[in-house]
Structures are given as C-alpha cells and as structure tokens.
C-alpha cells in the first residue's frame, strides 16, 4: 500500500514538474511590449512598439465608430499609453486588454478613417525588435507616400514665357525613430540637420526664381527611396541632403560634400559614410518594397546616360558649395568625395549629400546646435547652389531668362552710416539674398567692406579662396593684415569681427584675393 502511494506521489510530482516547466517555458517565450512611440508625418501617423522579441500579429479595421485593432500573439504589455502625444493624429484614444490568456489586444479609437499598414523590424545597433503600424490619412496610402501636388511660385505668365522656378529639394537626414548620430551633450543629428534645412528653405523662399521643397519638415522618417520620389514628384532640378557625421574620436571635425559614385568610393571615409547612411531604413523603419517590372536593358541604357550627366553636374555644384562653405566652416575635405549613396541615386537630378560637421566633436557640435551658425551655414550652401545655377541655369527657368537678358552681380563698398537692410532696400534685393551672397549670418558690416550685390533675380557667390591663420602670442590684427598684404577691413569683415581684439589660438580666415 505504501509502495503504491509513493509511486502515485512520484508520478504526480513528475506531472507537476512537467506542467510547471511548460508554463515557465511559455512565460519565457512570451514577448514583452516594452515601450510605445508615436510620430506624425504630413500624410500618416506612425505607432512603434518596442518588443523584447519578434511577435506574430494581425491588424484589422472596424467602423461605426472607426477603430483599428492590433492583436499580438504570446505578448504581454508593459508599456504605458497615457504619456503618448496624440495631438494632430487620427487617434483619439488607445486601450488594451489581455486576450486568450497569453495574447494582447490593442484598440485604437479613431476620429477618422485611415488606411493601415504594419510590419516587423528586427533588432539592429540602434534598436531592438519593433512592430511598426502606419496609419495613412484618408486619401493617401503607402503606395503614394510622399506624393504632393506641386506648388508653383512663378506666375502662370512666367511659366508660359519659359520663366519657371528652379526647384531645390532639401532632405534633412534621419528623423522620427531614427535620431541619426548622437553627439556631445546628447545632441541629435536629426534635429540640427532639420534646423539647417529649414534655414536653406527660408533663404531660397526669399529669392525670386527659386522654389524649395522640404523632403521632411518635422520629426518623422522618410525612407531613402521615398526621399527620391518626393524630389521627382516635385520636378526638382537639384537634390541636397543635409547630415552630420560622427566618429569614435572626438578630434575628428569639419564638413564634407559627397556626390554619387558609379564605381568605388573615393576614400575610406566616403565608403564608411555611405554604409552608415544607406542603413538608415533599417533604423527609421521601412517595410518591404516591390518594384514594377521594367525592360531591364532599356532602363539600364537610359539610366547610364542620364546618371553620367547628373554626376558630372553634381561634382560641379559640389565644388561651388565647398568654395562657399570654406568661408564659414572648416572643411574636412576640400574636394567632392564620392560613394554609392542610395539617397543620391536620382539618375536625372544633380544630387549632393553634405555632412555639416562632426557632432561628436565639441566645437562642431556647439556650432551645429547654434541657430546663428545654422543660418550662416545655410547661407553658404545657398550661395553655392545659386552660383552653380548662374553658370548652368536649366532651360525655361526665370534664372536662364534673366542671364540671357544681361543680368549679373555688382559690388558695393560699405560707407559710413550704411546698414545692411538699407543697402538691400536700395538695390531692391531681399536681406536674406544679400546675406547669402556674402556669407553673412547677421547684419553686421564694416566700413570699407566690399559687398556683392546680387541682382534681384540672380544671387551669386564671389570666387574668393581663403587660408587659415592661427593667432600666436604677440600678434595683432593689423600686423596679420600687413603680413598677408590684405586690407585690415577685409579681414575684419571676413571673420565678422566687431573690433580688432583677437586671442591666442584663434583661427582667422584670410582672403587670398
């Protein structure tokens, strides 16, 4: 009797152990929703679930009232929805509940009908596993994401008379779930490059004959191919991507301009940068994309002809921008670097990617985070762009028409009592255009300073090269001017000095002509 009882207890213990192990195994395998984030783009809302591991899921919509249901299999919700900012989104409320013991159901209460798309992203260097749910506003979808009606600033008469605007697409790197590089004091690349892009947009908006198009104008992510699509859909004549670099050593600093390469990278730095930027979709979150079938031979021939021409134009424009940026920042490379950047593969659009500096360098990071420096940097970029288009304006544009009819820049020497806004008004140009043409980030000018006065329709950059001089002990500004045979007022103006006070170790830009 005792023997049977011991056997029964042993069997029961074994069963309980097996059941306990099974339950423990189930608990271990269950995914955890650790955090939830939202981002708002112009045409869609993104919801990102941070997961401890990949999950099976499904989504479906309900009407009357509008809702979106997200079912997560073998998942437990630890995230809190109460802190999410839902303003400007179609989501009025988010609620959740356990379902079928091991599953979780999330319900989005909607104030408008949406088209939903979801996809999973595997863990990478920046994030763990994620579930992304995109809610496209009624009337848009993932297929036409980025498509926008062109906004023409030139009048109908101008268009009819071959005087259309030159369209410049401005792409601020990263955004949304992809912060880009993280620099000194936790400065995020996505924020500083958006600020610079907005400054470029603002300056171009004040220049007749130009129309800027922002690829992203907020904290949301646009896929690399989507950026290209936005440029094409707006019939862009030029595409420029703004980024900031990062490196393991804080000593690396300076700006670099990149163009597309059909072959290999021109340097190890260019190869590394292309790998970094081309991987952005893995972080920012882009689902699988299917391309329509095309005649591969025909497409290959056409792309080869078009891309060869656009790369040559990109290199020419890059040289102009480098000349302009050299007046306001240190250049890590003084010629255009080349690598296989996905975002630059426009084929028929001259395209450049600018790394505005190293966000991991204290000096560069401080500059990149400074509104006044952002404006100064943007002015130099605009100067390079407009100098390029003055040389080779697209046919049918207002700039081409003006050049063919004798337009051009002139010079003005600042006299006593002048101020920049009055000079701009006197020559019928905008203050922003005057600042851009002269790489001036504020309104400070010096007596005797030579200003380039851009025609009201034709801002250009003077072809001036610069050297750097590091101030040493005992030197004075007048002595440095004499040593370099450059007028003192030109050194003051070039370095935006309000006085002749300089300090040891200060870097001065010395104009060579």
Tell me what you see in this structure.
There is one protein chain. The protein folds into 3 domains: 30-143, Immunoglobulin-like (Sandwich); 146-285 and 299-391, Zn-dependent exopeptidases (Aminopeptidase, 3-Layer(aba) Sandwich); 399-511, Roll (Membrane-bound Lytic Murein Transglycosylase D, Chain A), CATH 3.10.350.10. 33% of the residues lie in helices and 24% in strands. The protein is elongated and about 85 Å long. It has helices at residues 2-29, 156-160, 189-205, 224-233, 268-278, 280-284, 296-325, 362-368, 371-391, 398-404, 420-426, 431-438, 477-483, 488-494; strands spanning 31-40, 44-51, 57-62, 67-72, 75-77, 91-99, 103-110, 114-121, 129-137, 166-172, 210-214, 238-245, 256-260, 337-339, 351-358, 410-413, 450-453, 466-470, 507-511. The strands form 5 sheets. It has a 6-stranded mixed β-sheet, with helices on both faces. Mean pLDDT is 76; it is low at 20-28, 142-153, 288-306 and 456-464. A hairpin with a 7-residue loop joins strand 8 (114-121) and strand 9 (129-137). The N and C termini lie far apart (111 Å).
């Amino acid at each position: 009797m005792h023997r049977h009882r011991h056997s029964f207890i042993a069997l029961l213990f074994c069963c309980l152990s097996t059941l306990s192990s099974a339950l423990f195994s189930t608990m271990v395998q269950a995914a955890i929703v650790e955090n939830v984030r939202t981002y708002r783009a112009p045409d869609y809302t993104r919801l990102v679930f941070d997961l401890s591991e990949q999950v099976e899921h499904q989504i479906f919509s309900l009407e009357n009232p509008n809702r979106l249901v997200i079912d997560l299999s073998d998942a437990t919700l630890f995230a809190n929805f109460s802190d999410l900012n839902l303003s400007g989104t179609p989501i009025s409320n988010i609620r959740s509940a356990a379902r079928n013991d091991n599953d979780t159901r999330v319900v989005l209460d909607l104030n408008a009908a949406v088209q939903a798309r979801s996809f999973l992203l595997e863990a990478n260097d920046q994030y763990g596993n994620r579930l992304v749910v995109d809610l496209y506003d009624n009337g848009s979808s993932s297929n036409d994401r980025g498509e926008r009606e062109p906004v023409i600033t030139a009048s109908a008469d101008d268009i009819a008379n071959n005087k259309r605007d030159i369209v410049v697409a401005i792409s601020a790197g990263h955004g949304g779930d992809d912060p880009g590089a993280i620099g000194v004091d936790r400065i995020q690349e996505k924020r500083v490059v958006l600020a610079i892009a907005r400054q470029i947009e603002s300056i171009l908006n004040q220049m007749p004959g130009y129309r800027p198009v922002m690829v992203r104008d907020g904290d949301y992510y646009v896929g690399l191919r989507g950026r290209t699509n936005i440029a094409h859909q707006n019939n862009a004549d030029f595409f420029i991507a703004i980024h900031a670099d990062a490196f393991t050593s804080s000593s690396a600093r300076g700006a670099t301009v990149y163009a597309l390469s059909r072959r290999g990278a021109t340097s190890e730095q260019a190869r590394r940068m292309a790998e970094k930027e081309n991987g952005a979709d893995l972080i920012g979150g882009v689902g699988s994309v299917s391309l329509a079938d095309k005649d591969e031979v025909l497409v290959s021939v056409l792309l080869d002809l078009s891309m060869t021409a656009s790369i040559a134009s990109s290199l020419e424009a890059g040289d102009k921008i480098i000349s302009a940026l050299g007046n306001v920042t240190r250049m890590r490379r003084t010629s255009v670097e080349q690598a296989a950047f996905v975002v630059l593969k426009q084929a028929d659009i001259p395209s450049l990617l600018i790394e505005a500096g190293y966000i991991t360098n204290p000096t560069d990071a401080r500059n990149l985070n400074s509104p006044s420096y952002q404006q100064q940097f943007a002015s130099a970029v605009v100067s390079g762009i407009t100098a390029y288009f003055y040389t080779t304006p697209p046919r049918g544009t207002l700039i081409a028409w003006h050049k063919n009819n004798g337009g051009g820049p002139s010079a003005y020497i600042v006299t006593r009592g002048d101020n920049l806004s009055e000079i701009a008004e006197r020559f019928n140009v905008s203050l922003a255009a005057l600042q851009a043409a002269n790489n001036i980030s504020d309104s400070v000018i010096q007596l005797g300073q030579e200003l380039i006065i851009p025609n009201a329709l034709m801002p250009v950059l003077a072809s001036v090269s610069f050297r750097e001089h590091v101030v040493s002990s005992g030197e004075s500004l007048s002595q440095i001017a004499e040593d370099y045979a450059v007028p003192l007022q030109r050194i003051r103006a070039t370095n935006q000095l309000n006085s002749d006070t300089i300090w040891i170790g200060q870097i001065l830009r010395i104009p060579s002509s």
